[in-house]
Amino acid sequence: MSAFGATLIAGLAGALVWSGTAAPATLSSPEREELLAHPHALVLAYDARAAAELRRAGGVRIARSLPIWRVGSRSAVRVAPLADVVQADRFIPTTTHFSSGDPLVPSQWWINSIGAGTVEPPGPGKPVTVVDTGVDLNHPEFAGRPSTTALNGQSIVGQAEDHGTAVASTIAAPPNGQGLVGVYPQAALQIWDATPTGPGISVSGVVAGIDTALRRGTGVINLSLGSNFRDPLLEAIVNVAFGSGSLIVAASGNDRSHRSPLEFPASFPHVLTVGAIDQNGRPASFSSGSPYVDLAAPGQAIPVAVPPSGYSSDSGTSFATPLTAGAAAWVWTARPTLEVTQLFDLMRSSSQDIETPGFDPYTGFGRLDIPRALTTAPLPTDPNEPNDDVDHIKPKRLFRQGDPPLNSARRLRATLRARLDFGEDQRDVYRVWVAGRRVTAITISPTADIDLAVWGPQTVTVFEGGGPRRRDLKAMSEKPGTRREIVRVRNTARRGAYYYVEAYLGAASSLRRVGAVSYKLTVSTAPIRAVRARR
Asked: Please, are residues 218 and 245 in contact by the beta-carbon 8 Å criterion?
C-alpha cells in the first residue's frame, strides 16, 4: 500500500518535538525535492511571523486545535526556517479490499456474529463521524434520513469515491425496506469529505475533518483509511481528539499477504484498531495483524450502499471498522456516563475471544460483541490521557492548558491510580513539584512490571539520548515483576521546580501484549535534614 510522507524540520524524526517557538532550519536538497514533488504542503507554525508569511502566500489554516496550515509547496519551502514542522500533503489510500463486483448477499451475516440482532439499538445520541470520501446523500439509504449532518460539501466522482457511501451505510443505513440496515440505524451520523482537492483522501482533509468533529463535541470518529507512513501531524490531531474526549476507531489494513506492515493511524496509541474476520469467525485472509490490533469485526462480503442508488458486497477492514465505530456510539449512547478511556477499554474487554487465549495480532482481544459491551462493568477512568510524553502535559504544547501537576508548593503529597497497556499506552508522564531544600519521593506500586524514571525541568522528551539524556535523567528504578519502584529527588536549591515522572512498562510486561496494567503512584516530600536524620 502506498504511503504518504513527511519532511520534518527542527530535528524531528518520526515524532513531534514541541519547541513552542520557531525552530530555524534549512531544508536539505532531498527534503526540498520531496516537498516540491507535491503541489501542497502542511506547515505547523507557532511563530506569528510564520503565520503572517503563510497568510500572505495564500495559506489556509485547516485546524483550530493546532496551528496547522495548508499552503503551496514552494511557499512552504520559503517559510520553513520559521516553522516547527513542514511536510508534504500526500494522499492517503483507503483500506478497501474490493471483491470484484460480487452481488449483494441476501443476508447480512454480521448481525448474528456481533449480537446486533439480540438487542434493540437506541435513538440518536453520541454522534459518529465518518471522515472519508464523500457520501451520496441522494442515495435511497440517505435521502431524507434524519440525524444526518454533512460537515462540508460532499462530492462523489467515479468508483474511487464509492468508499465513503459504503462505510457510512454500514453504520447508519435505516430500516426503510430499500436495501440494507446499518449496525446503528438511528445514529447521529456526521460526514466529512476528506477529498477537498479532488480524488483521493489527503492528510489535510483528515486533519480538518477530525478538527471539525471535535468542535461539535465528543463522539466517535471512524477512519477507514491508512498508510504505512507515521504522519506526525495526523498523530497530533488524533491525540488532541482523544484528550478532548472523543474515540478514534481505525482500520488495521488489508496487507496480510505483504507481511502486515504497520498502518497509521491504526498503529498510533489511543486508537481503537479493528481487524476483520470472515463468515467462519476466523481472521480474514487480507486483514493485517500487529501488536496494536484491539479487536475484530466482520469484514468479508459485507453488503454496502454505493452511488448513485445501488448496492454491492465489499470486503476489507474498512467495513469491520464502521461496524465497531457504530457499535461504540450505540454503547456510549446507552451508557452516557462512560468517559472515553472507559469506553475504549470496554470495547476491548467485552469482546469475545475467538483465537488463541488472550491477545492475538489479528483479532486483538476478540470479536466485537454488542450485548456484552452493553453489560460489562467498565474499568475506572484512566486519568490525564493522553500523557505519553512531555509535550502532552506541558502547557502551550499539544494542549493549551497542559495537565496540572500532581502536587504543588501548598500540597506536597499526592496519590493517583492509573494504568498502562502495551499497544495503546506504554507510558504515562506527569508533572511534579520538587520543592526547594526538600527531598521528593515518587513511589509506584504496580500489578505487573512497571518501571519508573524522573526527568529534570529542561526535559523536552523522555526519548532523549546523548547529552540531553545525561543532563535531564535524574533517577530510575527498574525492579523486576511487581516489586515497588521508588526514586528520590533531592533539591538543594532554595527554589522549587517542576520535574517529570515517567511510568513505563518494564521488560516483563513488554515481552507480551497485556491488557490493563494498573498502578498506584504516590508523591511525598520531606525536608532534607529529616531524610538525613532517618539515615
From this structure: yes
- What range defines the domain where residue 525 resides? 390-534
Same domain (yes/no): 62, 115: no
In a domain, 173, yes or no: yes
Of the pLDDT bands very low, low, confident and very high (cuts 50, 70, 90), residue 103 is very low
pLDDT value at position 92? 84
Helix (H) / strand (E) containing 170: helix 163-172
Give the span between the Cα atoms of 430 and 59, in whole angstroms: 36
Beta strands in 323-472 (DSSP E): 414-420, 427-434, 438-446, 450-455
Does 384 reside within a domain?
Answer: no
283: in domain:
yes
Does residue 200 sit within a domain? yes
Coil/strand/helix, residue 452 = strand
The whole-number average pLDDT for the span 137-166 is 92
User: What burial class does residue 84 get, using C-beta atoms within 10 Å of its C-beta: 0-12 exposed, 13-18 middle, 19+ buried?
Assistant: buried
Q: What is the mean pLDDT of the chain?
A: 90
- State the Cα–Cα distance between residues 448 and 398, nearest whole angstrom: 30
pLDDT digits over 248-306, tens only? 999 999 999 999 999 999 999 999 999 999 999 999 999 999 999 999 999 999 999 99
- From 293, 386, 342, select the one nearest 516 (Cα to Cα): 342
Same domain, 397 and 273: no
Please count the other Cβ atoms lying within 10 Å of the Cβ belonging to residue 111.
16
Reported as a pLDDT band with limits 50, 70 and 90, residue 93 is confident
H or E segment at 190?
strand 189-193
Cell numbers placing 267: 498503529
User: CB–CB of 226/264 below 8 Å?
Assistant: yes
Question: How far, in Å, CA of 313 to CA of 104, rounded?
Answer: 5
Same domain, 246 and 355: yes
What confidence score (pLDDT) does residue 31 get? 87
Residue 405 above 90 pLDDT?
yes
Instruction: Identify whether residues 112 and 256 lie together within a single domain.
Output: yes
User: What's the number of CA atoms in the CB half-sphere (13 Å) around residue 261?
Assistant: 11
Q: Which residues contact 346 (CB under 8 A, 6 or more apart)?
A: 331, 338, 373, 376, 378, 379
The domain boundary residue, chosen from 89, 114, 145:
89
**Which residues are tagged catalytic?**
132, 163, 318
Last residue of a domain, one of 44, 69, 89: 89
Exposed, middle or buried, 449 (CB in 10 Å: 0-12/13-18/19+)? buried
Q: What is the pTM of this model?
A: 0.89
Both 127 and 263 in a single domain? yes
| 505 bridge partner residues | 450
